[in-house]
Amino acid sequence: MLDTPDLTIEDVKGAHERIRPYIHRTPVLTSTYLNERTGARLYFKCENFQKAGAFKVRGACNAVFGLSDAQASKGVCTHSSGNHALSLSYAAGQRGIPCNVVMPRTAPDAKKAAVRGYGGKITECEPSTSSREEVFARVQAETGGEFVHPYNDPRVITGQATCSLELMQEVEDLDAIVAPIGGGGMISGTCLTLSNIAPHVEIFAAEPEQADDAYRSFKAGHIIADDAPVTVADGLKVPLKENTWHYVSNFVTDVLTASEDEIIAAMKLTWERMKIVMEPSCAVPLAVILKNPEVFAGKKVGVIITGGNVDLDKLPWIKG
Where in the chain is the domain with CATH 3.40.50.1100? Predict the structure, then answer.
């Protein structure tokens, strides 16, 4: 496996060809209302319409279909709060191999159901990084499956990079791209693509205030990891790792944060104005744009909506 710093745009293009039969080329949508509200021209790359409902199917498929037959013989395994788990289950199902995933017991029911629907086997853990890694070590030892890390894996980062590759092909002359950051797989893929084909484009990472370890890491110049942050953005609770930190520290323009109320308001606004269902984690980019209009005003901005696997029975603006 390549070390992350050695990945090239040719690796990204190769990944795009490898995964093409198993993914959607998702649409790019706009909103006159949101353009007027923000003072920017926003182009939403809608990975909520992706196979398995999330961008993570890109990295999962690149990893699974890049395995040799010998590597794939015992299946794959991972730990994930949801979208990587269901995406890897989808990819493994497409190849006809087993998939074992460790998920927090607090993960959304909709995501657990999707994992099982794609044929994945779930082992639950406590909602902390330490519990997740401890339980996963046991599951991997028992199954012998190939570990596909949710984000700290060059194969996954390269797959995620295909999202921004498509966006750059469809929208000319972008000034900036904004994407959520948790562990940093999508942001790292975005950095990988843009540093090669459009190094002038600014890259902003969007993060919840209540899970702001990437923000604090970026300001401190080294990884600061939280074990169990609490935020409505369940997909953004995990910390950066060495491979993703390489990209964040070298290519990200800034990390911007939003409060819980701002995230929920952006999620609801997108539903109302664009008729797009997205997860709270995926609303963070719009939330930070609305919060920091002076950063984006007058610019042509790509906004990556990373997924749509939301539990409709537990919408965060519904009380009770």
Answer: 4-54+153-314, 57-147
